[in-house]
Specification:
about 220 residues; alpha/beta; 8-stranded parallel sheet; TIM Barrel
């Protein structure tokens, strides 16, 4: 059994233990070789996550066409054109300027993209994302009424190794943001949250997308 198969099984079992459907597993292929990616692809993995726009472009051009590409890194204005060209999902939108530029590029390409709003739920200075509810609502409304950006949910990078009471508070915050999206019109909110070290806690607070790299690929290049 490969590391990918082992982790995928652990993830499915963890979801079943909590009475939930398995989340979408996103294989974070940052700095991983194409050879390793193809091995995982051959086991049935189609969704890959990249942190850097140029690496996304290079790999998307070399991997099979039925792969789905998730851009999960910080958005840089001068890389939005590349992201628009090659990503199927963007997890890290957090300001109007980037959203407007992305929409402009998507119109040029006559293409749509699925988007998540990144929330800095713990207000950590080292992390990107929206920290104010009013900014979240403003961006969510902009995205919801976009003709090229399909608002699908939220992405967070919180500390998940918390006490049970802290996890309950985090889960309540996640539900609150999901409810805000629903009030705008966004149904079936996706929640991109969790990694190999904390996927059980992520499932507990509602994650529907888990991002995992070295646990299934091994060490990076």
């Amino acid at each position: 059994m490969t590391a990918f198969e082992q982790f995928h099984g652990d993830l499915v079992n963890a979801a079943s233990d909590q009475g939930k459907l398995p989340p979408l597993l996103i294989a974070v292929s940052k700095k991983q070789s194409l050879e390793k990616m193809r091995l995982v692809y051959e086991k049935g993995q189609l969704h890959f996550g990249e942190n850097y726009a140029q690496e996304l472009a290079e790999k998307a051009n070399k991997m099979p066409e039925n792969c789905f590409w998730h851009f999960i890194g910080p958005v840089q204005s001068n890389k939005i054109k590349i992201i628009a060209q090659h990503a199927d999902w963007i997890h890290s939108l957090s300001n109007l300027k980037h959203a407007q530029k992305l929409e402009t590029e998507l119109h040029k390409l006559d293409k749509s993209i699925n988007a998540l709003i990144q929330i800095n739920i713990d207000s950590e200075e080292s992390k990107f994302g929206i920290t104010k509810e009013e900014d979240f609502i403003e961006l969510a409304e902009k995205l919801f009424f976009s003709s090229k950006i399909n608002l699908k949910g939220i992405m967070m990078l919180p500390r998940l190794h918390k006490s049970e009471s802290e996890l309950k508070l985090l889960g309540a915050e996640i539900k609150r943001y999901a409810a805000l999206l629903k009030s705008i019109g966004c149904e079936n909110c996706e929640i991109s949250l969790g990694t190999s070290s904390d996927f059980r806690e992520a499932l507990q607070v509602g994650s529907t997308m888990i991002r995992v790299g070295e646990k299934i690929f091994g060490k990076r290049i």
